[in-house]
Amino acid sequence: MKNLLVTGGAGFIGTNFVYYWMDKYPEDHIVVLDALTYAGNKDNLSEAEKKSKFEFIHGDIRDQPLVESLLVNHKIDTIVHFAAESHVDRSIHGPDKFINTNVVGTHTLLKAAKKNWFNEKFENHRFHHISTDEVYGSLKSDDQPFTETTPYAPSSPYAASKAASDHLVRAYHKTYGLQVTISNCSNNYGPYQFTEKLIPLIITNALNGKALPVYGDGKQIRDWLYVDDHNLGVDLILRKGKVGETYNIGGNNEYTNIDIVKLVSSLIHREVLQNKELVNKFPNCPAAHGKHPEELITPVKDRAGHDRRYAINAGKISSELGYSPGESFETGIQKTLKWFLDNETWWRKIMDESYNDWLNLNYD
Ligand code: NAD
Ligand code: DAU
Fold it and tell me: What CATH number corresponds to the domain at position 89?
């Protein structure tokens, strides 16, 4: 039985991880620590809060006394560290928060973990750090996918802050012997993803009849990973991964952004044509008037420093830990679209409350 501290558990991947873990290991205790920034949503965890082995703590990973008290009071033996500022565009407009949370916050957690686990002689502890493929920089079209030994070359302040945190985590292993693992994964998609990220933005804008913004020429490539396949990878690393090691997790699904936007538009077109209820629910969607949502595609100014291509070689986690993603992009995107169609109240609330100002800033 494990006692887990999940940081950032009210965000997109953290929420999915909590439900994945509860379902698979119901005997484990889970404490979520989340500062509920614009990207965190406590309502996501309402089902989890019905369980006795779950606790939500509203707090900041940079609050070392708070983190230490959680580690002691809940006898935490495993930290799964998702909490971060995660949106590249926001990091371009305001990098400070990214340094504070992603670098200083990760370091605070490391200090608290080291102090508590060494004082309490917790021999079987684990600090698992969730990182990103963006630390490796950009690939050319004919380059080999990233491996765990690809040199770091981050492009954005977000990616640089994640790279810095990865280095700190590794340093705490080498210098102090903290038992750490790191995973670097590609672009996740799935339920509960905040609607500023490409796939949920396209789904919700197409349903609302709003512009589908495509940065630059739209030929940038990302390697899409269904969120529960990411969680499966983290699970394998926690159970079978070697301390001190890094594992890349990918979906083996490279698509250009423009192809993603066209595919999602076509899926929505088909769904709305097949289902009269959706016509009434989403009257502003072009498909409700017999038109194709593709007509909403709008080229906009490119992202500064935009990485051209990411691709993950997941050979290490596959061969050493038996990882194999369960979803193809075709099945994962269907599940995701269904979730967004079924959970309109969830995304309407976010879109009303959180980020209209941000969108205006971004598309100038
Ligand atoms: P997210 O932005 O949806 O959620 C981040 C969560 O962290 C939010 O709940 C937020 O409230 C919380 N948080 C932020 N600052 C905090 C602080 N100081 N203290 C406590 N909580 C804080 O992010 P996500 O997409 O779920 O990403 C989770 C992790 O996975 C991040 O570390 C990110 O870098 C990494 N990652 C994400 C992707 C992706 O495609 N989404 C891919 C690779 C890696
Ligand atoms: O690769 C992993 C990373 O994936 C994570 O580390 C980040 O936390 C996560 O946000 C994500 O970063 P990206 O920048 O790749 O994701 P985003 O959804 O913002 O953009 C995906 C691609 O789509 C990117 O090339 C930019 C482009 N894009 C994005 C938006 C929001 C558009 O063309 N239009 C848009 O409106």
Answer: 3.40.50.720
Q: How many domains does the chain have?
A: 1
Q: Return the closest-CA partner of residue 146 out of 11, 246, 38.
A: 246
Is residue 75 in a domain?
A: yes
pTM of the model: 0.97
pLDDT digits (tens, 9 = 90+) for 261-282: 999 999 999 999 999 999 999 9
Count of other CB atoms within 10 angstroms of residue 234:
23
CA of 247 to the centre of ligand 2 (A): 21
* CA neighbor of 187 nearest in space, from 79, 92, 101, 307: 307
Q: Is residue 260 part of a domain?
A: no
* CB of 87 closer than 6 angstroms to any ligand 2 atom: yes
pLDDT band at 326 (very low <50, low <70, confident <90, very high): very high
Query: In this prediction, what percent of the chain has a pLDDT beyond 70?
Result: 97
Catalytic residue among 77, 134, 245, 327: 134
